Amino acid sequence: MTKLIQELTNNETFDLFALLKDVKVRTTKTGKQFLDLVFADRSGEIGGKFWDASAQDIENFQAGKVVFLKGKKETYMGNFQIKISAMRLATEEEPHDALSYVQRAPLSKEQLEEQITQSVFEIEDATYNRIVRALLQKYGNKFYIYPAAKSNHHDFEGGLAYHTVSMLALAHDVVRYYDGIDAPLLYAGTILHDLGKVVELSGPISTSYTLAGNLIGHVSIMDAEIVEAAEHLGLHQDDEQVLKLRHMILSHHGELEYGAPERPELLEAEILHNIDVLDAGIMMIQKALDHTEPGDFSDRIFGLDNRRFYKPNK
Amino acid sequence: MTKLIQELTNNETFDLFALLKDVKVRTTKTGKQFLDLVFADRSGEIGGKFWDASAQDIENFQAGKVVFLKGKKETYMGNFQIKISAMRLATEEEPHDALSYVQRAPLSKEQLEEQITQSVFEIEDATYNRIVRALLQKYGNKFYIYPAAKSNHHDFEGGLAYHTVSMLALAHDVVRYYDGIDAPLLYAGTILHDLGKVVELSGPISTSYTLAGNLIGHVSIMDAEIVEAAEHLGLHQDDEQVLKLRHMILSHHGELEYGAPERPELLEAEILHNIDVLDAGIMMIQKALDHTEPGDFSDRIFGLDNRRFYKPNK
Amino acid sequence: MTKLIQELTNNETFDLFALLKDVKVRTTKTGKQFLDLVFADRSGEIGGKFWDASAQDIENFQAGKVVFLKGKKETYMGNFQIKISAMRLATEEEPHDALSYVQRAPLSKEQLEEQITQSVFEIEDATYNRIVRALLQKYGNKFYIYPAAKSNHHDFEGGLAYHTVSMLALAHDVVRYYDGIDAPLLYAGTILHDLGKVVELSGPISTSYTLAGNLIGHVSIMDAEIVEAAEHLGLHQDDEQVLKLRHMILSHHGELEYGAPERPELLEAEILHNIDVLDAGIMMIQKALDHTEPGDFSDRIFGLDNRRFYKPNK
Amino acid sequence: MTKLIQELTNNETFDLFALLKDVKVRTTKTGKQFLDLVFADRSGEIGGKFWDASAQDIENFQAGKVVFLKGKKETYMGNFQIKISAMRLATEEEPHDALSYVQRAPLSKEQLEEQITQSVFEIEDATYNRIVRALLQKYGNKFYIYPAAKSNHHDFEGGLAYHTVSMLALAHDVVRYYDGIDAPLLYAGTILHDLGKVVELSGPISTSYTLAGNLIGHVSIMDAEIVEAAEHLGLHQDDEQVLKLRHMILSHHGELEYGAPERPELLEAEILHNIDVLDAGIMMIQKALDHTEPGDFSDRIFGLDNRRFYKPNK
Amino acid sequence: MTKLIQELTNNETFDLFALLKDVKVRTTKTGKQFLDLVFADRSGEIGGKFWDASAQDIENFQAGKVVFLKGKKETYMGNFQIKISAMRLATEEEPHDALSYVQRAPLSKEQLEEQITQSVFEIEDATYNRIVRALLQKYGNKFYIYPAAKSNHHDFEGGLAYHTVSMLALAHDVVRYYDGIDAPLLYAGTILHDLGKVVELSGPISTSYTLAGNLIGHVSIMDAEIVEAAEHLGLHQDDEQVLKLRHMILSHHGELEYGAPERPELLEAEILHNIDVLDAGIMMIQKALDHTEPGDFSDRIFGLDNRRFYKPNK
Amino acid sequence: MTKLIQELTNNETFDLFALLKDVKVRTTKTGKQFLDLVFADRSGEIGGKFWDASAQDIENFQAGKVVFLKGKKETYMGNFQIKISAMRLATEEEPHDALSYVQRAPLSKEQLEEQITQSVFEIEDATYNRIVRALLQKYGNKFYIYPAAKSNHHDFEGGLAYHTVSMLALAHDVVRYYDGIDAPLLYAGTILHDLGKVVELSGPISTSYTLAGNLIGHVSIMDAEIVEAAEHLGLHQDDEQVLKLRHMILSHHGELEYGAPERPELLEAEILHNIDVLDAGIMMIQKALDHTEPGDFSDRIFGLDNRRFYKPNK
After folding, report:
1. Using the beta-carbon criterion (under 8 Å), do D265 and C312 form an inter-chain contact?
2. Is the minimum CB–CB distance between D305 and chain C shorter than 8 Å?
3. Which candidate, F247, F260, F250, F196, places its Cα nearest to that of F222?
């Protein structure tokens, strides 16, 4: 029976299905080609080398493919790796859907949808409500499976919606504690703030930046989408509600040097920026501490100015 | 009967008691001295000039004193001001307590104390709990009446405790939503993070920086207080709990250039920094928008990089 | 016969028509209101004070109005000013069109249009050509009369189109000298790069920022306009031509800290940014040196990092 | 018959002459020394390893030498390289002049000289004209063969003069379009702005920094040269023309942090800086895109803040 | 008998000679011109106003002139000032030499010369010694009377040489304590580092920047002077000693953003930079504290990043 | 007889005792473990590889241990290394004290103590004197053997005290040359400024940061120690002397971005910062130049903004 990667013990011989998460073609000193691989399933990841790769092998074994693998788990220079005995592509009859091998958000797609839907109900402003619905309708399918980033934070299936749902919880608390906040604007801005990532990124498997992601970026992508949606709904481009919603998206990175075309100049925009920083920071630190021993410092976290975080002994 | 400043109508003649919030001695072109005054009570503030001030007047009418004032409210260059008919110091029999003329937090001292006390109960770690109790006992009286700043945010009586209570509410939410947070450390750090301001600042009336405030700053003041408290409790200076609590205070400004001797390197320290930014930002923006007409931008807010905020029409 | 402001000699008594370019209501020490005015016509500007202004005067004499003025030119503290004898609003029968008193570009509207049209002909790419035509059709009227800025550079009627025409000349030279440049993309990007200013700014008279200008900015305004135009033309949003043209606009400020959501990542975008800097810089320096005596340094130029420029003796 | 590097096909066996552009002595795991080489001729570059290098080989095969090479072109880890069968130094009778193997400017030395000479004619100011002539006479030989940089932009034989000629073309256009520019000053400054590089750099082959280049830099080198030249011509050091010309050189890097002792404070200095940035930027991007496939991004360009540039599909 | 400014008591009527250190022509509200003056002698400074100034008065009473003054010392808005009864220019028979009214260094010109001369003796390297002697011979007269700055530090007669002498004392200590320092290079660099200020500044009275100061700056001025001096002494421009001495001057501001074309890359250059910072800092702080009451903070010091310094009570 | 590392000649076979300064466990391509070692004694350092390391070897040969070594000095890729014939731990009877193999300050512990003691005598202020004595008594043992840094400057046994003694010499000179310096404050601040490093660092052998070092830092560590010492001496926390001494420590890094919670606001604090920079800079440059050939540039120095320094030919 096939195993999960996390279940393997050292020196165990096994069969399993796994996703080829990363594939690099390399050449040995003696000129032979081999594949330097990262295998993944929902339980974890492990590396391995496929020696003497033929042209056909290189053609077959591309990142994003699912393989059936026979091998042995062993130690090499302090790390675990797979010594491969045999490897072939999974067939149509076997569990070959790449998405089912990717790590995903702690909440199911249904749970995420329910929470987003609940917040949409609370957007008691016709303009914001209609724009949000229109864009969720257009991009909803991708919204619930895309990651929130290529690496960094929420870089797993459903990460984008999960990040959004976490921020909505914080947004509700802030609305409860402080006076004078336009809750519909805050919720609408929160739901849309990163939605442009469904155009910026290629998807949840072997995530990369699209050309639109590189040349335009998710901030401007979503800004233009709101304008289009507003036009389809018959709203004038100088409508103050539309301008405010656009401003939420345009300013949510907070600082010009982080790619925000505008700095926050609405109370709700400042709040959106701060809860984004708070949620993303916690996720990055949790992820780094998961790979850290008590009493040690984590690796440096790129998205937090290369700081290391301490994992206490108790 | 005496009035409140906010109740006066234009061209109304009145009697009232007020605090001299700010006093500047100036000289006219013709060489005569006068006082440029700001009067305040809990309802608001208004300016006025006291002409032909004698040496005795200058001696008497100092900032922080309460006066009985007869005058007329009028307009000068677009602003309201008081035309003073007569002014004298309030007597012992009259309402002469400066503190009763200062704006204060929306919650009473008792409400603030109750909420802080509740959070202290939840600090389920003996080390943090004892240190927090010791320092609240030492500085509690001041803690509940001091402002959180000279100007900027929470610059009113009780502002320090009010800021702390607001942050504790957010801290509880974060603990509820995310795994792996050391709640006692987060609550203890939140309660102590700005407590050093009771040494840094002179008090709630005509607030200024003390010499310790100027030369040491509230961050290092509180850091040393924690060390002293820990010593009195018989804790070793290398105790990991003590080091973590000190780190919370030392890093809560987030960036070295904002006067943090350390950048956050604990999950809880990063959270503390972010909820501090969030609460202070909201308070500064609300205060600025209170003085802004719908459809206008506020004055620039120094504590938010001189940004102006827009007050929407609806 | 009426005179132009520039023609007046010191102590000359005159009649003239002028635009009220700037109006400030002030109050004297003794409490009387007066108007602190800046008069302008196409020949230049001069200040003056209108004493004892009645409520009706304040109502009448607003910025943007044209007045008939009797007075005398005199010197006050080293500067020329107008001593006003009489002032009234210009009537419908008199030259009362504010626009005719504003400084304007050295080229006529017709000359500007001709040069822009010529460059549009040279955009030998159907996608770029159609988008540019669509947007010029939508905003052409404003494009030829708007300034390129509120102050700084090209802050005169037609300044926006004049700045664009100057840059097109430089763009043609660059295309001639260097290989591998996509001329249609460069010309299209040049024509559209600042076109969003017709939404960002209020117009050529007493120019101010609109709400869209403040909350969105001309970069994102034009980016969304291109997307809409492309949609109307049936182009897909992932069309590489559309993405490249959007990138030209999004990156033309060059640096994130100058409000560019993207840094230039196309050869043509880098060129566009550089010729924008070159043309704007020359205009700002020429304007500053116009008000500088030979052998002196100009005032500091805000748009050039507060540098002063030297006007040589020869 | 010998081949050019660019003409070789994969697996072709060949004879050719090449320059040793870069030579690194390395040791194998088993302790034997070999040479890691880069071969170059005017058509391009290719790497190769010379195994089992004797002390004599190491002595002979130094960077800057020309060799006669027998070998085979093959692929190694995705890159082409030379498998060397035999290698010896070129003899006096063979084409052994290193300079003839270096890439050079698209214009010949004569064409460059002609264009520079033409611009010198147009310097219709005796002071500038005489200083420029004096310095071209002193450094002319090197000026026409030196590169403009060690790497980055115009890093080929004649690159310095080619960069200057390109900038002169742009300078002429600017003079034609804008009023009030001192053309002689602009042309003189353009010709001299980087001339100090003939002292800063070692020459066109295996270019490195000289001690003067490291300790003084080409900006200050040329500044002092102008002073000396002016003195020889009998000009006073406070002569305004001399000061202005020095200022052109001292400020042409634009920003203090890029090593400009002065920021531009002359109209002509600002123009010189901007056309320098424009020409250098285009050259760097063209060079990077030459090594990029359509649809890909280039490597990061150090001289352009590590940006990558996109090479469109069409 | 005439008095010194510092000797006057409040309300004292007096005669004295003083330098017009600063003169501003102003106009009263009623249109009359008056002079706003700063009087100075070696004991101190005091302000005063000369009412109803005629055209002849304005012509006569220019900054840098010495006047005979009758008046009364009085208080105005908390500051002392002179009420002028009569004022005329000092005659040739009276003490009319402006320089004798300027504050000067604590050491006499002879003392300064002696100490500089002593250090020159210790420059036991022919190259450095000859260059230093040549430049002191050329500029010695100015060197001993110029200030080291327009304002900031050592802004008094002889300040330039005094600053140099103080730094030489520190330089000698450093040579005594640490190994491997090239003392002749350090002393030569110290003597020459600011000597370019005799060209950059106009002189000790009413100091301003010259055109050379504005366009070239004292760093590049002295760099070129060293090259010229070396050439006159027959030294080659690539002589390592000359390059090192130039590097000392070019790098003494330490950071590119402070106008240093080179960052220090010689041990002696790093030392020179640091003792320059140390000496200038102490002088600026001492000057600021001289005008500060014990227990107060000084005004902000521009040259020290606008920091204020505390003057202790004991 | 055993040798010192520095005495070995190439290809010499030898016996010696050495400290294992750095130990890395690595694995060969074929999966065997070996130790990559750095050996050190007071004369210098050299690398070597211990092949086929058993689990026991890895257990025994840890950083900080002293070994007896038989081997041969040889060259590998241009560097010297040890080819190990035999290696075992030194016994109790052999010279096995790690500290005796570490490089140490040029002055003996006794010399350092004498100089510190002398300066303590000169602290003629009871408050400063008592605090300094108390803290030297508490930490004196470590103070005289700790390094001043993990790497960078004074990274040798006794480096902390040696750095302090060097700075005291400079401090005395400054006191001698300038008026108005509080010498006791300057000396006390100098002695204590880096004393917190005895808590921040682990010690002179294989120096690393402690948890307190990472989370608190030596600046805040010493600040709190002063407060405790003052309390034990019965001094009030608002005592101006105590505040000033704390300020010296808190501000000695000079800039917030270098981890100073306060910028210097006392004359003595500015001096302390500057002599710290001066002494540390000289030490870093001397160390770098010791490993540089005349005519070459050193490696980049991290603590000096990655500058390289030139080692002159004479």
Report:
1. no
2. yes
3. F196
Instruction: Identify the residue whose tokens are 């132009």.
Output: C4
**Rounded (10°) angle between helices D217-232 and D240-250:** 160
Instruction: Tell me chain A's radius of gyration from C-alpha atoms.
Output: 23
In chain B, residues 202-241 whose CB comes closer than 8 Å to chain F: 210-212, 214-217, 219-220, 223-224, 227-228, 231, 237-238, 240
The whole-angstrom separation of Cα D229 and Cα D233 is: 6
- Test mutation, E34, E211, E257, chain C, max C CBs within 10 A: E211
What residues in C contact E214, CB-CB < 8 Å? 297, 310
Out of E166, E170, E285, closest to residue F270 by CB: E285
Judged by CB atoms within 8 Å, which residues 71-110 of D form the interface with A? 76-78
Q: Which chains touch E (3 or more CB pairs under 8 A)?
A: B, C, D, F
Subunit contact E214:C77, Cβ cutoff 8 A: no
D309 and chain A in contact, CB less than 8 A: no
| 3-state DSSP of chain F | CCCCHHHCCCCCEEEEEEEEEEEEEEECCCCCEEEEEEEEECCEEEEEEECCCCHHHHHHCCCCCEEEEEEEEEEECCEEEEEEEEEEECCCCCCCCHHHHCCECCCCHHHHHHHHHHHHHCCCCHHHHHHHHHHHHHHHHHHCCCCCCCCCCCCCECHHHHHHHHHHHHHHHHHHHCCCCCHHHHHHHHHHCCCCHHHHECCCCCCCECHHHHHCHHHHHHHHHHHHHHHHCCCCCCCHHHHHHHHHHHCCCCCHHHCCCCCCCCHHHHHHHHHHHHHHHHHHHHHHHHCCCCCCECCCEHHHCCECCECCCC
Q: Residue A279: which residues within 8 A CB-CB, separation 6 or more?
A: A163, A166, A167, A170
- What pLDDT is recorded for position D280? 96
State which residue of chain B sits closest to F220, comparing Cα positions: B220
Cβ contacts (< 8 Å) between B257 and chain F: which residues? Answer: 256-257
**Closest approach of chain F CAs to the CA of D23, in angstroms?**
15
Residues present in chain E in total: 314
Between β-strands A44-50 and A79-89, what pairing exists: parallel, antiparallel or unpaired? parallel
Lowest pLDDT segment from B251-255, C296-300, D171-175, F98-102: F98-102
Range of weakest confidence among A78-82, A220-224, E99-103, F195-199: A78-82
Query: Which class does domain E5-101 fall in?
Result: mainly beta
Q: Please count the other Cβ atoms lying within 10 Å of the Cβ belonging to residue A293.
A: 10
Separation of alpha carbons A269 and B310, rounded Å: 11
**ipTM at complex level:** 0.88
pTM as predicted: 0.90
Closest by Cα among F77, F88, F78, F84 to F13: F84
pLDDT at C75 exceeding the cut of 80: no
Cβ–Cβ under 8 Å, residues D167 and D190 = yes
Under an 8 A CB cutoff, do A215 and C258 touch? no
Confidence of residue B155 (pLDDT cuts 50, 70, 90): confident
Domain coordinates in residue numbering, chain F: 5-101, 109-286
Whether D25 has its CB under 8 Å from any CB of chain F: the answer is yes
CA atoms within 13 A on the CB side of B70: 3
- Chain A residue closest in CA terms to B281: A270
Of F25, F31, F215, the CB nearest to A310: F215
| pLDDT range class, residue C268, cuts 50, 70, 90 | very high
Which of D27, D211, D215 comes nearest F76 by C-beta? D27
Cα C248 from Cα C56, distance rounded (Å): 50
Rounded to an integer, the average pLDDT of F173-201 is 97
Cα E129 to its chain centre, rounded Å, is: 25
The β-bridge partners of E93 are none
